[in-house]
Amino acid sequence: MSDFVFPVRVYYEDTDAGGVVYYANYLKFMERARTEWLRELGFEQDVLREDEGILFAVRSVRVDYLRPAMFNDQLAVSAEVVGQRGVCLTFRQEVRRGTETLCRGEVTIVSIDACTMKPRRIPRAVMERLSVSD
């Protein structure tokens, strides 16, 4: 799947006293982009839980903060799958303002059983939409 981009505007609540985006909020922006990416593929997370009995949880995150985003900035948050292993998907993500990269990271999510909270294979329908063999 090619690079998915989700627009985000920085609200006052996203910033610290200096009007700079608080570092943890970049992770929220990335989460929104992954959720919207999944939605664009035709999957709602509540429906996956109900119909397939799975949830997605973050397993690991590596983030580099390069430049600050400020109050009222219009940002573009990308999500691109760069790896897949049975129960895991790894995303490369960037937060950009125009052509300038402000933050970049790699996020690995794991598919887990909604009842047992143990790892469980990503549903075949999701993998087929990714054009990744299971």
From TrEMBL:
InterPro entries: 4-hydroxybenzoyl-CoA_TE, HotDog_dom_sf, Thioestr_dom, Tol-Pal_acyl-CoA_thioesterase, YbgC/YbaW
Pfam family, any one: 4HBT
Domain Thioesterase: 18-103
Gene3D superfamilies registered for this protein in UniProt: Hotdog Thioesterase (3.10.129.10)
Keywords for the protein's UniProt record, in alphabetical order: Hydrolase
Gene Ontology terms for molecular function: fatty acyl-CoA hydrolase activity
SUPFAM superfamilies, sorted: Thioesterase/thiol ester dehydrase-isomerase
UniProt record similarity statement: Belongs to the 4-hydroxybenzoyl-CoA thioesterase family.
Full protein name: Acyl-CoA thioester hydrolase
